[in-house]
Structures are given as C-alpha cells and as structure tokens.
Amino acid sequence: MSAGYAGPVAALAAPIRLGGRPRVMELLSPFAEFLRVHAAWTGPVTAAACLLITLPGIGLLMPAAAVMLLVGSLIGVGAIPGEDAFLGSLLGTVVGTSLGHEVGRWSGPAFLRRRPLRRHRRQVARARLFFRRQGTLALLLSRFLGPLRCIAPFVAGTMRMPRRRFEAVNVLSAVLWVAVMLAPGWLTLKNRANLLPAITTEIAAPPRP
Predict the structure, then answer these.
(1) CA 37, 40, 42, 47: dihedral to nearest 10 degrees?
(2) Residue 45 Cα distances to 51, 113, 161, 197, 201, angstroms
(3) 33-37, 42-46, 97-101, 204-208: lowest mean pLDDT where?
(4) What's the pTM?
C-alpha cells in the first residue's frame, strides 16, 4: 500500500486482532493493495468479497468486519469510489444471502446434520431457535449477529420461508448492514484526512508576533 494510504489505514487497523494470530488487516493487505491499484474493479471485487462473506460455510471463515472496515477506510481516504464500493457490497450481500436461502430450500432440514455443518451445530441450533421465536425479524437481526449472518438464510430455506418475504427482508437488511459496516472506516479516515491539511498548515505557519 502506498505511503499516502498506508499510514491512516494501518493506524485504524492496528487494534484489530484475531485471537493470538497475526493481525487480520495484515492478512488482508494484498486485498487492499489490489483495490487501491485497480480502483476501477471496486464494484466487482467488493461484490465477490461480500458474496463469500454471506455464503453458508464459507462465510464462517471470512473476517467480515475486518473486510468491511478496510473497504470503508479506503473509501475514506479516497483510494476507491464510494458509490461503487457500496453498490458492489450490496449486490454481493443480497446475492449471497439469496443463494444460501435457495440451497437451504433445495437440501432440506436433513442437510443440517451432514458433515459441512456438523462442526457448527451450535450456531445452526441457535439460528433455528432464533427463527422459531422471532420469525421474519430473526432474518433481519441475524445480519448483524456474526456467524448467524451466513447460517440464517440457509436455515430460513430449510424452514421453507416464502421467497417474496425472504427477499424483502434480505434487501432491507443488506442495505442497513452494508451502510453500518462501511461507515466506521469511512468516517474515521475521512475525518482524519480532512484534519491533516489543517494541522499541517498550522504547524508550517510562522509564529505570530
């Protein structure tokens, strides 16, 4: 990442860790560098990233918060176009969630006990209980509840949630989620970028008599 962006983005990302493992943002630096160099590909790249984030199984392995914070940070420093990033993220999120729902409808409840999801039985059980208690509201809320984000659409499919109702909640929750997840990085880096020129001017100005 070039010097113009590396400082602010690295400073924002410094507190982010994944247990005792290397910093998540350091692992995502090739992703950030690709976006910076190929800003014209912002829409397709963010769409693909959010598609993976929301897919059942794969989404459990993706650091969703770190990816979205990084994208928001790149928007904030002007490295990538914000509109393309928002629309790409929204499209990937909606499509990935819809695919999860369709896979759930096709495979049925028995798939929840098979090997791909056997290691995540607790999250699956929580998602099913959440749906029984909250109904449609569960799908909206699960978008903001970590592992349930990619499991809930699949569970909704196995429980035969009507497509029209599912897609309405899918689009609404996707708009809210993308906006909320991009906002912290964008606002922090945008404010910092706005402050730096003023601070530099103040420091460089000659002392008053």
Answers:
(1) -130
(2) 10, 33, 30, 31, 37
(3) 204-208
(4) 0.72
- Which run of H or of E encompasses 71? helix 64-76
Instruction: For residues 46 and 201, give the distance between their C-alpha atoms in angstroms, rounded to a whole number.
Output: 36
Spatial neighbors of 12 by CB under 8 A, at least 6 apart, are: 69, 73, 185, 188, 189
Mean pLDDT lowest for which of 30-39, 128-137, 190-199?
A: 190-199
52: which residues sit within 8 A by CB, 6+ positions away?
58, 59, 62, 92, 96
Tell me how crowded residue 25 is: count the other CB atoms within 10 A of its CB: 24
Q: Range with the lowest mean pLDDT among 38-47, 117-126, 134-143?
A: 117-126
